[in-house]
Every structure is written in C-alpha cells, then in structure tokens.
C-alpha cells in the first residue's frame, strides 16, 4: 500500500530585479501581513537596506523594530524571539547575508509568524530555503524552518555588495555537484531519504551557473540576476527535499569545521568551494570532476587554495580529518580520513602546498 505523503513549502512571491527594494511595503501588503514588523539585520546591511526600508514603512504609518545581529547562534535566535514578544511584533523581515536571514527564519518559525527575506548579498543559498544553519558546540545543526513567504532580491543592491560575496554565492552553488554525489552515495549505502527531483534541480542549477560563468563579472548587475536566480533555485531544491542534502555534503562539513577552528577566516561559500574540489577528488579520483570544479571556481575569482582562503595548511588537514563528526550525515568521508590520506587529497588538488 502507498502511504507516503509530504508538504513542500515554497515562497509565495519571489520579487527580483532592479530597484525592487522600493517594493517591500507592497510585497508585505499583498501578503496581508498586518501590524508591526521586526527587521533582523547586521551593521552594513542595516545602512544599505534596512534603514531605507524602514523609512518606506514609516512613510506608510508603520514603525518597524530593528535588531542588528553579528553571529548565527541559538542565543541570537532567542534574543530575536524575546524582542518580538516584548515589542508585540506580528511578522519578521530578514535583511542581510545568510546569518541575518537564518536567524529571522528560525525565530519566525518558533513564533509561528510570517517571514520575508531581503538578501543584500548573493552569497548563500539560504535566501529561500526552509532550513536554518546554526553552530552549536562541536556540532552544526540544519534546523527545519519555514521558507520565507516572500523574497525581495534587488539586483542593484546585490551588485553593489563586495564582489567576494557574489563569488561566495557562486561557490555555494558549484558545491552542489559534490553535495548531490554524497547524497546519492548515502542513498546507495545507507538508504537515506532521497529525492531525484531535488537532486536534479540542484545539479541543473550548478550547470546553468557554470554555463553562464563568463557573464558573472564584478559591477555587472546581470551577474547579480544570474547568481540570485541560482541561489533561489538551490534553496527550492532544499525545500523539495525538506533537507539541506541537495546543497550540503562533505564539502559543507569541511566548511563547518573550519568555522569552528578558524571562525570568520573566510566566507561560507568560499570554504565549501575549496572543500568541493577535494571531495570531488575523493569521489572520482584523478579522472573525476575535481578539475572542472576547480576551474569553475577559478573562472569566477573564487578561492581554490587554503592560502587564498587565508587558512593555513595544517588547519585544512585538521578540518578534513575531523569534520565527519560534525553531524550524522553520511558522505564520501565515511568514518573519517586519516592524516596521510587528507594530506594526499589536499596536495594533489593543489589546495595545500
Ligand atoms: N539556511 C540555509 O539554507 C543556508 C544556506 C547557505 C548558507 N547558510 C548560512 O549562511 C551563512 C553564510 O552567509 P553569508 O556568507 O552571507 O554570511 P554573513 O551573513 O555573515 O554575511 C557576510 C558578511 O557580508 C555582510 N554583508 C551582507 N550584505 C552586504 C552588503 N550589501 N554590503 C556589504 N556587506 C554586506 C554581512 O553583514 C556580513 O558581515 C552561514 O552561516 C551559512 O551556514 C544557510
Ligand atoms: O545544512 P547545512 O550544512 O548548513 O547547509 C545549508 C547550506 O549551506 C547549503 O548550501
Ligand atoms: Zn552552503
């Protein structure tokens, strides 16, 4: 008897393009979100976007609460929940990079309130996903949440953000290749829950981005358009799977471990990109796709070495040999690499010298 069932939650409105930041009040109105919003942002995105959006709301007679956050943590989520309750807000808007959006997403999920996402950087694929990503001691949680009701991605804002944020977003997408390889391996070896649609969408997203890599150049607004579409498509893949599996495999475990060993050394997307070069080698060896991943990253100015990440070789090796412990997610790393094997893969792929 067939007894399977699922809920796939997706955003209702995706508003993307030049100048759409001026439409946040209209977007909220169209969703019938009433009352007082709480904006979750961080210092630069506040200047770039949250304050101008607040001015729009004030002109419409609505007085938003604004909270700036610096890190993604359960404490930060708790602080937002407390503020939301104290200020009697009725919905949340995440305005900024991946951390601000993740915190707003998780707090709104807990509060059972509506949430909108306003990315100020095309740096990560959490813009529309139904997941939050939070470090917690020795582990890293992929927390179930609801996707935003609406996304407002202004390509002029995204194009003016520092270029490395966009290249990080590209690398987060390119890493989908190895995330899907890991997912298929886990399906074969451990019979994990698997969605061919989500896997195919994730891979196709990476294909399209790599196919358009020559259009992804600094200062060109079309780049922001191409990359933000890819980030949203990848987020939809996670929502279809109801898991970050289509976009997060061993390369993400490696990055999460780097975050523990060297906090804030490099951007999330850049770390997963370098991780992806090495885990592609582990999957396919010399004849696999690791060089294609390396060259795709190189072509969009994303780091391909530890030195370019600003992380020393020994830390890369420590992350590689320990990151399988970060969470219970089967990948090509199996029950862990030993130091000699880690040095071999990192050296042969040129990640370390
Ligand atoms: N939930 C998901 O599905 C998902 C997916 C991918 C990544 N993530 C998470 O997102 C985080 C990575 O996102 P990130 O790389 O955006 O990190 P981040 O949020 O720390 O942003 C990086 C920096 O860029 C700044 N910034 C943002 N917009 C800017 C602008 N327009 N101008 C100048 N500076 C700007 C931010 O303030 C921050 O200092 C990680 O915590 C990662 O785990 C979550
Ligand atoms: O579940 P995690 O590993 O945080 O992954 C989410 C996201 O970074 C995928 O690009
Ligand atoms: Zn990621």
UniProtKB/TrEMBL annotation:
Its EC number is 1.1.1.261. Binds 1 zinc ion per subunit. Zn(2+) binds at residues 172, 252, 268. The keyword NAD applies. SUPFAM superfamilies: Dehydroquinate synthase-like. Glycerol binds at residues 125, 172, 252, 268. It is an enzyme of class 1 (oxidoreductase). GO terms for molecular function: glycerol-1-phosphate dehydrogenase (NAD+) activity; glycerol-1-phosphate dehydrogenase (NADP+) activity; metal ion binding. It is found in: Cytoplasm. One of its GO terms (biological process) is glycerophospholipid metabolic process. This is Glycerol-1-phosphate dehydrogenase [NAD(P)+].
């Amino acid at each position: 008897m067939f007894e399977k069932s699922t809920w796939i939650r997706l955003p209702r409105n995706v508003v993307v393009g030049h100048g759409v930041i001026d439409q946040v009040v209209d977007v909220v109105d169209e969703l019938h979100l009433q009352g007082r919003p709480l904006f979750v942002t961080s210092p630069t995105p506040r200047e770039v976007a949250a304050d101008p959006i607040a001015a729009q709301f004030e002109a419409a007679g609505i007085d938003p609460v604004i909270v700036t956050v610096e890190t993604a943590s359960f404490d930060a989520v708790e602080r937002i929940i407390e503020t939301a309750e104290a200020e009697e807000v009725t919905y949340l808007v995440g305005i900024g990079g991946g951390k601000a959006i993740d915190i707003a997403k998780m707090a709104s999920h807990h509060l059972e309130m509506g949430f909108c996402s306003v990315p100020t950087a095309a740096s990560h694929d959490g813009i529309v996903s139904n997941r939050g990503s939070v470090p917690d001691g020795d582990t890293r949680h992929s927390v179930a949440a609801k996707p935003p009701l609406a996304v407002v991605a202004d390509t002029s804002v995204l194009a003016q953000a520092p270029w490395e944020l966009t290249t990080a977003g590209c690398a987060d997408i390119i890493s989908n290749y190895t995330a899907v390889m890991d997912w298929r391996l886990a399906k074969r070896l451990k019979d994990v829950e698997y969605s061919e649609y989500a896997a195919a969408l994730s891979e196709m997203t990476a294909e399209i981005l790599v196919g358009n890599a020559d259009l992804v150049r600094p200062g060109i607004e079309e780049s922001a358009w191409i990359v933000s579409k890819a980030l949203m498509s990848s987020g939809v893949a996670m929502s279809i799977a109801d898991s970050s599996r289509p976009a997060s495999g061993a390369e993400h475990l490696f990055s999460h471990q780097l975050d523990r060993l060297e906090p804030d050394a490099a951007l999330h997307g850049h770390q997963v990109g370098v991780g992806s070069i090495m885990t592609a080698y582990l999957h396919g060896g010399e004849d696999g796709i690791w060089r294609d991943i390396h060259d795709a990253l190189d072509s969009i100015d994303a780091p391909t070495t530890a030195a370019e990440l600003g992380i020393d070789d020994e830390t890369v090796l420590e992350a590689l040999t320990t990151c399988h412990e970060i969470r219970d997610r089967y990948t090509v790393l199996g029950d862990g690499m030993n130091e000699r094997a880690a040095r071999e893969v990192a050296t042969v792929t040129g990640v370390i010298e």
